[in-house]
Specification:
This protein has 117 residues and is mainly α. The protein contains 5 helices and 2 strands.
Length: 117
């Protein structure tokens, strides 16, 4: 997802639900922080911001270098990396999180489906 697409999605949610764009930006940033903390651990100090002017994302992750525990699971997942290769490794998760925020904000599923692409 390129930065202008982020702005387009925020605008679409704003228009569809009459939600202040700043609230949408904050929800996306919070979702990004939550996703990063799930990956790196809740102890990580994470800051994520989306530029309101051009849609670029900036982030900082500070993680304690102490011994971290790992949890092994007995689960399997079947996935495809095709969309990640096509859209980029940061853009695809960002798009998914943005659409998830839209879902929780009450954006119509038909609009979310169209934006998912």
């Amino acid at each position: 997802m390129n930065p202008t697409e982020i702005l387009r999605i925020v605008d679409a949610i704003h228009r569809a639900k009459n939600i202040d764009p700043e609230v949408v930006f904050q929800a996306i940033e919070a979702a990004l922080i939550s996703a990063v903390k799930k990956h790196y651990g809740d102890e990580s100090n994470v800051e994520m911001t989306i530029s309101r002017e051009d849609g670029t994302i900036a982030g900082t992750i500070v993680q304690d270098s102490g011994a971290a525990g790992c949890l092994a699971t007995e689960s399997e997942a079947l996935t495809s990396a095709a969309r990640y290769r096509r859209d980029g490794w940061w853009a695809r998760p960002l798009r998914n999180l943005t659409l998830l925020c839209g879902f929780f904000l009450g954006v119509p599923p038909s609009l979310l489906k169209r934006l998912y692409g």
